[in-house]
């Protein structure tokens, strides 16, 4: 265990019982996005997404319309980026001013999560509020960060 960064280790009092077996195991939610084409079903899909986020924190989508070749290319390119040395990934690290780009510092119950992310906005640039203050009506532009490697990350 001495090779593991202690910021990843959950104190015993916060660990779940590894022998726990739920009485009625739930399956991860699968949400069919083609249902968004039915105006009468949109609110149901939104509710299912909200419920899945609250209970699981994630869900699987089907019928999203993204071609398999595109998805495979994105997965391959993302793997290439996340396999880069940390010094390369940190060149695109997000910050308080521009919250898109590389990030590896999320915490759950004060323990660092075992994940890395690269956030992007669909619209580039994106207009956001200047601050989290509800009284602040200022706006600013946020631009996506794009790593130099892999070159086809965009």
From TrEMBL:
Instruction: Check the record and name the Pfam families matching this protein.
Output: DIOX_N (PF14226)
Alphabetical list of SUPFAM superfamilies matching this protein: Clavaminate synthase-like
- Ranges for domain Non-haem dioxygenase N-terminal: 28-148
> What keyword terms does UniProt attach to this protein?
Iron, Metal-binding, Oxidoreductase
InterPro entries (alphabetical): DIOX_N, IPNS-like_sf
Which sequence ranges are marked TM in the entry? Answer: none
This protein is called Feruloyl CoA ortho-hydroxylase 1-like
Record the organism: Camelina sativa (False flax)
